Amino acid sequence: MKTIISKIDINNMDKEELKKQAKLLNEGKTVIFPTETVYGLGANALDEDAVKKIYEAKGRPSDNPLIVHIYEKNEIYDLAKDISEKAETVMNKFWPGPITIILNKKEIIPYKTSGGLNTVAIRIPSHPIARKIIKYAGVPIAAPSANISGRPSPTKADHVYEEMNGRVNGIVLGGDSNFGLESTVLDMTSEVPMILRPGSITKEDLEEVIGEVTIDPSLEKKEDNKKARAPGMKYTHYSPDADVYIVSGAIENVANKINELVSVNLEKGLKTGVMCLEKNKHKYKGEVVSLGNNLDEVGRNLFDILREMDKKNVDIVYSEEFPSQGIGRAIMNRLLKSAGYKIIHT
Ligand code: TXA
Ligand code: MG
């Protein structure tokens, strides 16, 4: 397939180029565009044939529902029903932004989009390019992360170009994502809302405005993973080609353990990557890559660095562990999945 590529400068957006890409969406075709979280692979959410093309391009199981992206809040009343006070509060406070809300769907949403469920996931992105594309397309846009199913989500223009050129009708290249982790997914169909996927809008942020929020208990353990309420959280995900391990414990113990393993691997002819905070870089041997200075940076860089590890052709990757609160919860959720829940305790 010939892919139409548009390179957009976020500070000086070429409206005609964006309209050209939006027209493809309006005609039932697939277009990749940047959002503030990760790049999305979009198609008309109300058109079953268009949505089918998303699953094909990603190689994604079709029971995994898609997020519907809209331009303005008032569109939601045509797509979803039984919208609670708390849902209104969350939308007013956090949209446009990196949070997706699950509501009961109206008939207009095809089951192909909702993965056969009676609920629908909706969000309003804040990224200026995403907003223009959705507005010009004039239809709600279903858009999962624009990676081949199972791979880390794309956070940079290069990632989508390398992986998806030729698989979709259009690609809008528009720089790096600001957050680098996918949106928080919040189920608002129950009295006490439940986080089905942690993101940069945290449990703590939500509890400040709507009171108690729970977290899908199946997210933290491998054995419980098959029970995850967001179908997408059941699948292997965020995996580079290398085998990833999380090494947990006091920092000096972690450093000793990793360095010991790097030497053992070397004797076996295996190349080892290490992912750590910038301040700990000097402690390690092997192909050491900094994830950043703080948790916000780690979130932004994680998927890019998992991809970088593949480029370095490493066989095994060890990562430091991060605290499971605030944004750390989303980081550990993605890291645990990319590691297949393998943790080395020191
Ligand atoms: O940040 C994001 O959310 C990005 C950008 C492109 O907006 N999109 C994204 O979509 O991450 P995707 O398809 O990769 O992840 C959607 C997640 C999946 O885990 C899916 O199972 C869950 O949301 N989901 C969607 N609809 C759902 C529903 N009705 N009930 C439960 N989970 C749902
Ligand atoms: Mg995804």
Please tell me about this protein's structure.
This protein has 346 residues and is an alpha/beta fold. Helices cover 33% and strands 21% of the residues. It has eleven helices and 17 strands. The strands form two sheets. Strands 1, 2, 3, 4, 5, 6, 7, 8, 9, 10, 11 and 12 form a twelve-stranded mixed β-sheet that branches. Strands 15-14-16-13-17 form a five-stranded parallel β-sheet, with helices on both faces. A hairpin with a 6-residue loop joins strand 2 and strand 3 (40-44). It is globular. The model has no long low-confidence stretch (mean pLDDT 95). It binds threonylcarbamoyladenylate and magnesium ion. Threonylcarbamoyladenylate binds next to strand 6, strand 7 and strand 11.
- Please tell me the CATH architecture of the largest domain by its name: Alpha-Beta Complex
- Helix count, DSSP H or I runs of 4 or more residues: 11
Strand content: 15-25%
Radius of gyration: 20 Å
**Secondary-structure class:** alpha/beta
What coarse outline follows from CA principal-axis ratios? Answer: globular
Examine the coordinates and then state which fold CATH places here, giving the name of the CATH topology of the largest domain.
Answer: DHBP synthase
- Poorly predicted tracts of residues: none
Ligand species: threonylcarbamoyladenylate, magnesium ion
What's the story with the biggest beta sheet?
A: 12 strands, mixed
Order of helices and strands: EHEEHEHEHEHEHEHEEEHEEHEEHEHE
Total number of β-strand segments?
17
Indicate how many domains the architecture comprises: 2
Q: Percent of residues in helical segments?
A: 25-40%
CATH superfamily of the largest domain: DHBP synthase
Mean pLDDT: 95
Distance between the termini: 50 Å
CATH class of the largest domain: Alpha Beta
